[in-house]
Write a structure and sequence with these properties.
Blueprint lengths: L1 H9 L3 H19 L9 H12 L4 E2 L6 E6 L3 H18 L4 E5 L2 E6 L9 H17 L2
Antiparallel strand pairs: 1-2, 2-4, 3-4
Helix pairs in contact: 4-5
The structure holds ligand H2B.
Organism: Rhizophagus irregularis (strain DAOM 181602 / DAOM 197198 / MUCL 43194)
Family: Belongs to the pterin-4-alpha-carbinolamine dehydratase family.
Keywords: Lyase
Length: 137
Amino acid sequence: MFALSGFTKSVSFRPLFHILPTLRYSFYSTTIKRMGVQKLNEEERNTLLSPLLSDSWEMVQDRDAIKKNFTFKDFNEAFGFMTRIALRADKVDHHPEWFNVYNRVEITLATHECKGLSQRDVNLAKFIDNVYATFTN
Ligand SMILES: C[C@H](O)[C@H](O)[C@H]1CNC2=NC(N)=NC(=O)C2=N1
């Protein structure tokens, strides 16, 4: 007992405990999170996608993707909107396809991994609509 406490005192395991959350997060973000994202099924399309399609999101022609156009006062506002989305997109590792000219931003959402619409697109679309609401007040 005495010998063990002497050992733990001289060889500290503390640094390991510090990096443990990082290791866990990196395993989560590279392995677990990326495992098998599924295309939305019919029921999910009815419950999750329909509200977006009633709120100016549209299906893209010949593709399982949604798009929406946003307009702003000027370029400064449009770019501010894009910046907030870009930070979120990078955090959740899910990125929009987008096009900007001055005060206009056109956004298309789809998931590469399942080659179509997934829950991630629904989440990002809702986030985008919430950000846009802060600009149009
Ligand atoms: C390799 C990397 O994880 C990816 O390709 C990520 C990044 N951003 C992404 N963005 C979108 N829209 N769909 C994805 O499947 C996706 N996957």
